[in-house]
Amino acid sequence: MKYFKTQVLKNYLYLITVSLLLEIIFRLITNLPIFNYSLIRIFLANSLISIIIAYISSFFKKKINFIICTIYLLVISIYGLLQLAFNNYIGVYISFNTSSQLGAVKDYIIDFIKAIKPNYYLILLPLVIAIISKILLTKIGVKKEVTLSKERDIYQNIITLAGVIILLIVFGRSYTFLLKDNYSTDNYQAVSNRDLFINIPNSGLFVKEFGIATYGFQDLKNKMLKKESNVYSYEDFASANIMPTNREFDDTLWEMLIEEETKDKYNNLNKYYINKVIDDKNEKTAIFENKNLIIIMMESVNDIIYNEKYFPNFYKMASEGWYFENNYSPRNSCATGNNEFSALTGLYTVYNTCSANTYRNNEYYQALFNLFNKKGYYTSSYHNYNENYYYRSIIHPNMGSQKYYGVQDLNIKWSNKYGDWADDVDLMKAYLKLLIENKDDKKFMSFITTVSSHNPYAISTDFGDRYLDMTKDTDFPKDLRRYYSKLKVLDEALGVLLNSLEEEKLLDDTVILLFGDHYPYALDTKTLKNVMTRDLDDYEIDKTPLVIYNPRLKSEVFDYYTSYINFTPTLANLFNLDYDPRLYAGEDMFNSNFSNTVIFADSSWKNKLAYYNASVGGITYYTDFKYSEEEIKNINYKIFDKLNSSTQSIKNNYFKYLHDKLQEISLIQKDEDILSKGENIN
């Protein structure tokens, strides 16, 4: 037993001590609870890994043995540090499922490093102390470890291995036992611990329950095995279609499909969607019928742009149109592409996945482009950058855009060098020229994504320096002044659009929707507080402008809690398009049953009454009102269903399946009707 008691045991104690302290420091930094069932799970998981590494490394010489253990601890320490920084920068934990974006992310390295707060480096402290202690103990002549003779004793090896196996079994069975739901640290949790562990539907919640090291291993395993989760909670498939509605749908073909379908992955979604409540028409229905629509997703724009002095064109549209003061653009992995996708489909993206890219070959007949196509509009989309980040030339046509124009198609000046963005003014001029040439007197629906206000702000660039004098009398830091300068370029582009539409006599007949894809996350909270006096905690930093403008609109300010997820069903109602509101995770904001709640990537949510933090399982109230525990659970279950149904729909290309199957059944029915009529005639 000498071998087991010395080297393996010492390795294990070294590994488990450092890894457990690392986990505790990580939780202290992220304000996660420590002394509960999750800490026991974290201890058991790290023990399992530590025992395996301790045993394997002990077969090597003492120095190599120590190096192997130290390299492992160094890897998980750096991994934890990077996760802290990434979560601070983007708002979610990084996943191996987004590794395809690493080549692009290298461009952001300066801004990313800025996101590493000084206290984050504390996560390296346990390993540093352990290494220093080892060196000092060696130097002062601490008694050397007892080593085996060169002739390994077969019995000692067998006993050692048996001991390791027994410990692995004990720790493993204990860990499995603690995966039961009644050992959750969150009374409001909508997903079981077992499903959370296997499928990682929410990385923030996973880290809270299982720790950062386990998250890394499980995430890597799922990536390597290309695991596609199919987690369903909607067993009763809602209680829908029991309320009277003024929208009518003939579900005969859909019901036939449900009867015929044998695959659960499709039929669970069929039953979920067909049983959702059908939203009524309302006072805003058809208010924009037969008007043109231009949607502009403004790069890295938050409500700083609502400023008449610096940005008069945006201010004009916001103050004279409809302004939504509680609109949010929740961050997620690949925020620009994913948020654009959600705005056009009304679906939440797959958590910690560049859904727009990963599933770019999916088709969405319910997407906004296709709804306008059915109405006879000319649909098109535009972006003044290439496809280094997102495959829009594939994604947009698969959502129904009749023509997508990238920066090369626009024939404007641009550079492939990070930071040397194309000019949004050139974008608007090129857009208008192409629109007038191609719409053939049809009504039009256009989606435009800008780029000039994109970071970096920390270094000198053309647009960042162009209007620096505009803020010379302020005490703003340089990176904030560069951001203002870039916003000015965007505002000039909006001015070009307004003036050109008026010259072409199109403005009165055109609705313009403006929204920010995400806040300028290259600017830290401290910098933003130079101009934003409100509290930026509890996802308030993700608040972005949403404006709907037409010169004939009566100015209104709405206090709805909303996000890009609601754009497609809301616009479909405003323009009186042919759409089924059940096919969206988003809602029509003007519907009387609108939930008036914004949902964030980690399943947290916020409304005028409260903020629920899903990653820690806590709720903060803004009024004297209090939800019951059951009410919070019900909200969380509904949110889980929305997020999960979107995830399964995207992963299984459900909407292409649904469209094709319904058409197939329709054709069969028509053929049978024709045959039936022929037989009757004979």
SSE arrangement:
Layout (H helix, E strand, L loop, with lengths): L1 H28 L7 H21 L4 H29 L11 H4 L3 H6 L10 H15 L14 H24 L15 H7 L3 H8 L1 H13 L27 H9 L3 H11 L17 E7 L13 H9 L1 E7 L6 H11 L9 H4 L9 H7 L3 E6 L8 H7 L4 E3 L1 H4 L13 H15 L5 E6 L12 H5 L11 H26 L6 E7 L8 H4 L17 E4 L6 E8 L3 H8 L23 E2 L5 E2 L3 E4 L4 E4 L7 H23 L2 H28 L1
Parallel strand pairs: 1-5, 1-6, 2-8, 3-4, 3-5
Antiparallel strand pairs: 2-7, 6-7, 9-10, 10-11, 11-12
Q: In words, what does this structure look like?
A:
The structure is a single chain. With 682 residues, this protein is an alpha/beta fold. The chain folds into two domains: 2-178, no CATH class; 252-601, Alkaline Phosphatase, subunit A (3-Layer(aba) Sandwich). The chain has 25 helices and twelve strands. The protein has an eight-stranded mixed sheet, with helices on both faces. A four-stranded antiparallel sheet has the order 9-10-11-12, with no helix packed on it. A hairpin with a 3-residue loop joins strand 10 and strand 11. The radius of gyration is 28 Å and the shape is globular. The relative contact order is 0.13.
